[in-house]
Design goal:
Blueprint (H helix, E strand, L loop, with lengths): L2 E5 L2 E3 L5 E8 L7 E7 L6 E6 L7 E2 L7 E6 L4 E6 L8 E11 L2 E6 L3 E5 L2
Length: 120
């Protein structure tokens, strides 16, 4: 059974930090690209950060560059999103996503989401 379980969300003041975690199980984690998305009320879901299966270069949305850092630990089947200098506009539900697309495989898995609220 495939599972992606996010944790680490909560309420934080502007300028503060949070670290999200996503624990994966039920699939070959190291073969999947991992992504963090977010969705704010009334807005579409947007890609925040993406890291390939083998690690390496991580891509970020312009709105979070220099503030957020995504990493993965294939030994622990876990990805992280370190969020610093948080702003009210970062308020959203954050989702972990796993993707693998190759010949004969087109898999796309989602976590249940974790709420991040940035407010004073």
């Amino acid at each position: 059974q495939v599972q992606l379980v996010e944790s680490g969300g909560g309420l934080v003041q502007p300028g503060g930090s949070l670290r999200l975690s996503c624990a994966a199980s039920g699939f070959t984690f190291s073969s999947y690209a991992m992504n963090w998305y977010r969705q704010a009320p009334g807005k579409e879901r947007e890609l925040v950060a993406a890291i390939p299966s083998f690690g390496g270069i991580t891509n970020y949305a312009d709105s979070v560059k220099g503030r957020f850092t995504m990493s993965r630990d294939n030994a622990k089947n876990t990805v992280y999103l370190q969020m610093n200098s948080l702003k009210p506009e970062d308020t959203a539900v954050y989702y972990c996503n796993a993707k693998r697309r190759t010949i004969g495989i087109n898999n796309n898995y989602w976590g249940q989401g974790t709420q991040v609220t940035v407010s004073s």
